[in-house]
Design brief:
- The chain is an alpha+beta fold.
- It has two domains: 46 residues, N-terminal domain of TfIIb; 62 residues, CPE0013-like (CPE0013-like fold, Roll), CATH 3.10.530.10.
- It is built from two helices and ten strands.
- The protein has a five-stranded mixed sheet with strand order 8-5-6-10-9. A three-stranded antiparallel sheet has the order 1-2-3, covered by helices on one side.
- It is elongated and about 55 Å long.
- The N and C termini lie far apart (56 Å).
- The structure holds iron/sulfur cluster.
- Iron/sulfur cluster binds next to α1.
Length: 120
């Protein structure tokens, strides 16, 4: 069964609108991409959408109550609710440096959660 889908490519600021026909998980037809990177982007979106996750983690006894964090690589979008719960349950102690690993090897994915600002 062919499914029509539409994407906005986020790879560069041009933001091409890309239309595809997906047949059994494979791209049968594509239009709107102005370069091959758009094709790669849509292939990944169809196969497994990936996102950088940004959030905050509680800090105990710091000059700020939370520290902003992000994953250092994109993670499967479907896992974001589980990741957000893990981050909500976490509490860290200062001092925290920018880039410091708050969680190493998140869920065994070889992805780290790192601080994006310092906390004293
Ligand atoms: S398809 Fe190419 S030109 Fe268009 S937004 Fe994506 S990367 Fe940019």
């Amino acid at each position: 069964m062919t499914e029509k889908r539409r994407f906005i490519c986020t790879i560069c600021p041009r933001g091409c609108e890309i239309k595809v026909e997906v047949d059994n998980g494979r791209i049968a037809k594509i239009s709107g991409n102005q370069c091959v990177r758009g094709l790669e982007y849509v292939r990944q979106e169809v196969k497994e959408p990936m996102r950088i996750v940004m959030s905050v983690v509680k800090v105990r006894g710091g000059d700020l109550p939370t520290v902003s964090v992000k994953t250092d690589r994109p993670v499967p979008k479907r896992l974001i609710p589980e990741i957000m719960k893990e981050l909500a349950d976490l509490e860290v102690k200062p001092p925290i440096k920018i880039g410091e690993k708050i969680i190493e090897n998140l869920m065994g994915m070889n992805v780290n959660v790192v601080a994006t600002r310092p906390v004293k």
